[in-house]
Amino acid sequence: MKVNFVNLAREAKLIENEIIDATRLVLQSGNYICGKNVVSFEDNFSNFCGVNHSVSVGNGSDGLKIIMKALGIGRGDEVICPANSFIASAWAIIDAEATPVFCDVEDDFLVSLRTIKKCKTNRTKAIMAVHLTGKLCDTDKLLDYCKKENIFLIEDAAQAVGAMNNRNEKAGSFGVAGSFSMHPLKNLSVYGDGGVITTNSAELAVKMKLLRNHGLVNRDEALIWGFNSRLDEMQAAFALIKLKRLNVWNKKYIEIAQKYTIGLSNKIVKPTTKNGFIDIFHNYIILVPEEIRKDFMSSLNDFGIETKIHYPIPLHLQKCASNLGYKRGDIPNAERLSKSMISLPIYHTLKDSEIEYVIESVNKLVELYL
Questions:
Q1: Whole-angstrom Cα distance, residue 115 to residue 110?
Q2: What rounded mean pLDDT belongs to the chain?
Q3: Quick check: helix, strand or coil at residue 274?
Q4: Which of 33, 111, 176, 362 has the fewest Cβ atoms within 10 Å of its own Cβ atom?
Q5: d(C-alpha 275, C-alpha 156), whole Å
Q6: pLDDT tens digits for 131-176?
Q7: Alpha carbon 118 to its chain's center
């Protein structure tokens, strides 16, 4: 059996007729930028996340940059972010002309107050809490700390759309603003690039809408220097179609994760969810001993099961970060985890037979290698 790490065509097939109909309507409208679909999506997404305002943008990475620009973060400022994240978390800080300060993560791959405190300086202007794999950071403690230190909490919620705490509060509703990616691999995706920012600040929302659209207040007048980072009408129409299905799809991710957790051997480390919380499992990551990971993944591939690593090179060890002065050993837990993690296939169209085959194959290899 072949089990791909992702299979985007399956999801597209489910909603193909609606996608074609929506495409036809947008084409016939003659309005392709900042039209009614964009407005409708932003309103619906605000309702979904439980926030006052949403600002759609070209991608989630631009969303982070636009948040920082709107907050006045720039040259001479520092933003703390985890070393275990996708490169976009860091380059957005660089693009805002600030300096990323990489912190360690706990065993759940997330920043904590403990790891953040070690990196705080008098130049720190914000903490970027990355809700990696669809799991929320400890936003209560981080928010209290940010208020005490008079710094901003920014949520990198790229992987966490719909994730909730034990008060039913969702990703994107905790910090001063949060950025979501709608890249095709995400739980809520479009057919290309797309992103959306959430905030409860009307003032910030107005400024971010200016920033995403050249700083223009109308066709001819620019109030501030801005960017060109807009979600187009076509992608907004696609996002609306998928948003109404997102709760059902996320529930399927959770069900698959539960099957993995129950069925997989206890000899490997599996993800856990805090009591009362809802993790939406953008990724399902197991940990195996460093010395067997390469062979373990190779054997899974021989069985026809595609796996990935999220992420094999911590941000502070990327070549592009060499000027920041980090060296191997500086951020030990993120480095350790990067050598042991394996992401298993998980998506809402995964078939029961495929799930069972992944469990069976992993367990066979556990007995072989462990």
A1: 9
A2: 98
A3: coil
A4: 33
A5: 23
A6: 999 999 999 999 999 999 999 999 999 999 999 999 999 999 999 9
A7: 24
Question: In what order do the strands lie in the sheet containing 195-199?
Answer: 53-57, 195-199, 177-181, 152-156, 124-130, 78-82, 99-103
What is the amino acid identity at position 106? E
Helix/strand/coil for 309: coil
- Beta-ladder partners of 164: 170, 278
Q: Which two tokens stand for residue 287?
A: 């940990």
Tokens, residue 184? 């095709």
Which sequence spans correspond to the domains of the chain?
Answer: 8-243, 246-369
Angle among Cα 278, 242, 168 to the nearest 5 degrees reads: 25
- 255, 285, 326: which is closest to 132 by C-alpha? 285
Alpha carbon distance 130, 17 (integer Å): 35
Instruction: Detail the DSSP E strand segments found in 31-118.
Output: 53-57, 78-82, 99-103
Q: Is 19 within 8 Å of 240 (Cβ atoms)? A: no
Structure tokens of 143? Answer: 């928010």
Q: In this structure, is the dihedral angle defined by the CA atoms of residues 67, 69, 72 and 73, taken in order, positive or negative?
A: positive
Give tens-digit pLDDT for 23-57.
999 999 999 999 999 999 999 999 999 999 999 99
Threshold 0.70, pTM exceeds? yes
- CATH number for the domain whose boundaries are 8-243: 3.40.640.10
Whats the size of the chain, residue-wise?
Answer: 370
